[in-house]
Amino acid sequence: MSITLSKQQARQFILKKQGLLGEYRFEGKEGILAYVRQAGCIQFDPIDVCGKNAELVLQSRVKGFQKEMLTELLYEERKLLDYFDKNLAIVSMEDWPHLECFREYYREHSRGKDEVDRIAEQIKELIREKGPVSSKDIDFNHKIDWYWSSTKLSRAALESLYFWGELIIHHKKGSNKYYALAEDYVPQELLLAKSPFASRIDQLKWRFLRRISAVGLLWNRPSDAWLGIRDLKAAERNQVFEELNKEGKLCEVRIEGCKESFYCLRQDETLLHEILAQPSYKERTEVIAPLDCMLWDRRLIKELFDFDYKWEIYTPQEQRKYGYYVLPVLHGEGFVARVELIAAYKEKKLKVKHVWLEEGIRPSKKLRKELDQCFRRFMKFHGLHEMIYEEASELVLQ
C-alpha cells in the first residue's frame, strides 16, 4: 500500500528527514555521528573555497558544529573514518566490515600491484618503527602508472595499502595524508569481522537502504545517488527494489503530478504521517553543500523542488552559467538563491561575491534580512570577523 503526498509535502518530508526544516534535529558531536549513520556517508572533497564539502554539509544541519569536531571524530576518537562509499567519503568506523567489498575489489584490481607488493612489508615496518608517514617520508621515487596519471611509487604504495584496508589515514596536514597501520586503530572486533553479506544482492540491499536514507526519497531509476556501486545494471537494481519491498523495508510513496513511484525507509513511515497531518514548521535559511546528500539525484530535486542545480567547478569557465564554487541557498521549504562565497581566511573576511535569486523570487525586506543573517552565521562558522557584499551581490539584494 502506498502513501500519497503533494509535492509540497514531499519537500517537507525530505527536508525534515534531512534536519533542514523546523528545529535542529542534530546537535554537537553526537549529532554528527547520528547524521552520518542516517546518511551512510558524507562525500569528501578537499577543495576549500568557503569550507570543505563535508564541513558544509554538517554546518547546515548540526547545531553548534565546529570544524574541529569533525577532525576529532576522525583522527582522535576514531568514531569516523575516511574511506570509499559514494566515491571518497566519511563513514562510521562501525561500517568497517560492511566495506570489505571495496577492499576486496582493490586487492584484486589495483594498478601496479606487483611493484607495491614488493615494498609493502618495508613500508609497514617503517610505520611500526617511526609512526604515521606520508609519501614524502618514503624514498621510492620512480614513477608508475596510477589511476589519474603517473605518480611516485611511494604514493601509489601508501594509497594501495589504504585501499586494501592495511592502512588508514591517521591524520592530515593540509593536503598531505599521513598513514598508519589499520591494526593499531581499527577495533579488533571490526578488523577481524568477516563481511556480513552472503551475496552481492545482500550487499546491494544494504547499500540501497543507505542511499535512500541519505536522500530521503528515491525512485527506481538511473541516478547519481547510486554512484560508487560498481557495475550496477537496471535488472539488478529492479531486483533489489523488489526484494526490499517484499521484505517490508521500504514504503512506496506516490507524489501528485509525478508518474514515478518513490520510496523511503519503512522506519520513516511515522514521519510521513506527521507530514500528512499538515503541521507548521519553523523556517530556516541555510547554505547547502555542493555535494550534499540531499542533492545526489539532481533530476529528483528538479522534479520535486523545481531547482536545477549543477556544480560548475569542472565546467570550463566560458560555459559556466553561474560560477566556480556556487552553493544553493535553502529558505523554508525551497531553494531561493545561489551564492558565491569566498572565505578569505588571511583577511578574516567572508566575501559575498555574487547572489543569484531564483526565478520568481523577489528581494523583499524579510528575505534580505534572512539571507544576511544566514551569511553572518556562515562567517562566524569560519571564525571570520567581517562580511563584505561585493557589487554584484549588492545589486541583486537592493
Task: Describe the structure in your own words.
- The protein is α+β, with helices and mostly antiparallel strands and 398 residues long.
- The protein contains 15 helices and 18 strands.
- The chain has helices at 7-18, 28-39, 53-59, 67-75, 100-109, 113-130, 153-163, 182-185, 188-191, 200-215, 234-246, 269-276, 298-305, 365-381, 391-397, and strands spanning 3-5, 26-27, 42-43, 62-63, 80-85, 87-92, 143-144, 151-152, 167-173, 176-181, 218-219, 250-255, 261-265, 285-287, 326-331, 334-344, 349-357, 386-389.
- The strands form 6 sheets. Strands 14-15-16-17-18 form a 5-stranded mixed β-sheet.
- A hairpin with a 2-residue loop joins strand 9 and strand 10 (176-181).
- The longest helix is centred in the N-terminal third of the chain and has 18 residues, at 113-130.
- The N and C termini lie far apart (50 Å).
- The relative contact order is 0.13.
- The model has no long low-confidence stretch (mean pLDDT 94).
Q: Approximately how much beta-strand content do the residues carry?
A: 15-25%
Rough shape? globular
Q: What is the typical, i.e. mean, pLDDT?
A: 94
Briefly note the structural class of the backbone: alpha+beta
* Main sheet: strands, sense, barrel: 5 strands, mixed
In spatial order, strands of the major sheet run: 14-15-16-17-18
Tally of individual helices? 15
Radius of gyration: 22 Å
Low-confidence stretches: none
| Secondary structure: helix percent | 25-40%
Number-wise, the strands total 18
Distance between the termini: 50 Å
Q: What is shown here, in short?
A:
This protein has 398 residues and is of the alpha+beta class. Among the domains are: 99-191, no CATH class; 310-397, Gcn5-related N-acetyltransferase (GNAT) (Aminopeptidase, 3-Layer(aba) Sandwich), CATH 3.40.630. It is built from 15 helices and 18 strands.
